[in-house]
Amino acid sequence: MNLHPVTARVTARIRARSLSLRAAYLARIDAAREHGSARAKLGCGNLAHAFAASGPDKAALRGTRGANIGIVTAYNDMLSAHEPLKHYPELVKMAARGVGASAQVAGGVPAMCDGVTQGRIGMELSLFSRDVIAQATAIALSHDMFDGALLLGVCDKIVPGLLIGALSFGHLPMILVPAGPMPSGLPNAEKARVRQAYAEGKATREQLLEAEAASYHSPGTCTFYGTANSNQMLVEVMGLHMPGSAFVNPGTPLRDALTVAAAERVCAITALGDVYTPIGHTIDERAIVNAMVGLAATGGSTNHAIHLVAIARAAGLLIDWDDLDELSRATPLLTRIYPNGEGDVNHFHAAGGLGFVIRELLDAGLLHADIRCVHGGTLHDQAWEPLLEDRKLRWRDPPLASLDPGILRGVAAPFDAEGGMRRLTGNLGRAIVKVSAVKPEHRRIEAPARVFDSQDALLAAFKAGELTGDFVAVIRAQGPRANGMPELHKLTPTLGVLQDRGQRVALLTDGRMSGASGKVLAAIHVSPEAICGGTIAKLHDGDLITIDAEAGSMDVCVAAATLAARAPARFDLVANRVGLGRELFGNLRAHVGSAEQGACALFTDH
Asked: For residue 339, is the peptide bond before it cis, meaning its omega torsion is within 30 degrees of 0?
């Protein structure tokens, strides 16, 4: 199948736009390539420090023949998605020894959970934790002891942070190793029903807690298709997993076999062997385009409109929301996974999963098949399904047809002719909207603004019975420079209640929505943000706002001269500067780029 013209056009545009930056990046990582083992160049004192506590691997590390693999782990036992990583280092070390290599835990990275911090002060550190994770990854690998690395992480900011940090060591081969989703719990539709009932005062806190605990109930990733599971999809279509690794449940023999396979494979692709596969060459413009196509085809998380920009930039590539929008409009929507549908990722995986999606998109010419995958094959091989036969890891082709057309469909009969993500432009600036979970009749709104400077102010107005009629809820001063760009998912049940009552409502914000953005139209990541001179700072209650996701537009019906004459609102952000660690993140707030630049504080060319 020939490459789809839109995929080809966007890829060529990114390549041309990034020519000098990418060339400088590749020159830098190629110059860092080791000839021989990395530890061979260390002084004796340096090396002795590095293997002093290595027990059975001490002799191998003292020599310079076999590869040494760094393990960068996001393990902690509070977060369900990362608790299964506890046993991975020993599995990896045993696998490395079996092929004449060694492995060491190079370092840990922080892993915070947006589910725990949602609507709390800690959420203001969430997006910045990605940059801290990138820096922690760099610190872990800075000992220069390693010929390759395994990156152990799953959730929202962790995988993007690991990748950004890893790309600074782009001369090293690296494979990402996930933990897999927890088994299915309380059906998502029932969980959403209880949340809305609680928002209306029709369910008790104990009933809400019981529903939440039945949903999030065991080790493993949350089963809805939010940012964490979108991460795993992206890693697969970029060729950075062993095939089919994304959605195998934790604590199973197959999960362990995939971890062992990743460890064995990374040992084989170091510069000491014949199939050297550095991550900086694996992630190129084709892999980034594949990620954007996969995001559109599966209705993935809006957070990746930010993360993918930052990951690409770390690899010397420049992408923007126009690229994402063009690809999304050419890509059919192939999945309905909660919050876009009723089934969760376990149901999706059972129906044919990512292997089916990858094959369908390849057959349509929408994905680059010739990317450099860590397993040594092409992206066609990434579509394989893993299984155990006689306790040995094997792979097979995905099913020819979806086993559940209510969750997964092929290109010939998609859920929608276009993908799940759109870019909006107009006199309000630029923004992102996710349409895959929004019914067509709710994708356009023209209504007066109700302006708030926090999500708590909107919730207070709801409880006071003040949110009547149709309106666009404007929540501003929520951008990266204002307060770290927290997710505003706490608004979802409330706005859902109003929409179910028959009101036409939408959200307009320079903040983020959850990776589980749902059924209410939400124009998010508005840039420029309010405190950087964005028009959103000049909006008044009653201004008529039009958001049209189909047309890709967002405007306020105020004369240009009137708008220009308005003074922007002043925001009291003193309270956002201290408490729960926020005082330590002032430099990040001061230097962070815009949402469309990846909301990243690590690059100096904003």
From this structure: yes
User: Roughly what angle, to the nearest 10 degrees, separates helices 227-237 and 353-363?
Assistant: 50
Q: In 3-state terms, what secondary structure has residue 436?
A: coil
Q: Would you say residue 605 has pLDDT above 70?
A: no
pLDDT of residue 247: 97
**Of 246-250, 316-320, 374-378, 577-581, the least confident:** 577-581
Q: Cα 556 to the chain's mean position, in Å? A: 31
d(CA 107, CA 48): 18
205 Cβ partners below 8 Å, 6+ apart? Answer: 198
Question: What is the C-alpha separation between 583 and 18, in angstroms, rounded?
Answer: 36
User: In which region does residue 317 sit, left (phi positive, over 0), alpha (psi from -120 to 50) or beta (all else)?
Assistant: beta
Give the number of C-alpha atoms closer than 13 A to the C-alpha of residue 503, restricted to the C-beta side: 19
Give pLDDT tens digits for 315-326: 999 999 999 999
Judge contact between 471 and 447, C-beta under 8 A: yes
459 with 490: CB under 8 angstroms? Answer: yes
Least confident of 37-46, 131-140, 228-237, 472-481: 37-46
Residues of the chain with CATH 3.50.30.80: 421-577
Instruction: Please tell me the predicted confidence (pLDDT) of residue 518.
Output: 76
**Residues 249-274, mean pLDDT to the nearest whole number:** 97
Whole-structure pTM value: 0.96
Q: Where are the beta strands (DSSP E) in 48-135?
A: 68-73, 102-108
CA–CA separation, 430 vs 422, rounded Å? 11
Query: What 3-state class would DSSP assign to 171?
Result: coil
Cα gap 420→397, rounded to integer Å: 27
pLDDT category of residue 192 using cuts at 50, 70 and 90: confident
Determine the pLDDT at residue 118: 85
The CA–CA distances, whole Å, from 32 to 280, 317, 414 equal 11, 19, 45
Cβ contact 258:248 at 8 Å: yes
To the nearest 10 degrees (0 to 180), the angle between helices 285-298 and 227-237 is: 140
- For 12, the enclosing helix (H) or strand (E) is helix 5-17
**3-state SS class at 151:** strand
Distance CA 68, CA 271 (A): 11
User: pLDDT at residue 606 above 60?
Assistant: no
Distance (Å) of CA 356 to CA 246, 274, 346: 13, 31, 14
Read off φ and ψ for residue 425, nearest 5 degrees.
Answer: -135, 160
With CA atoms as reference, report the closest residue to 324 among 354, 304, 310. 304
Q: Do you know the residue count of the chain?
A: 606
The domain made up of 421-577 has a fold known as Glucose Oxidase; domain 1 (3.50.30)
What is the C-alpha separation between 310 and 304, in angstroms, rounded?
A: 9
Q: Which tens digits make up the pLDDT trace of 459-514?
A: 999 999 999 999 999 999 999 999 999 999 889 889 999 999 999 999 999 999 87
- Residue 214 has a pLDDT of 92
DSSP run (H or E) holding 555:
strand 553-556
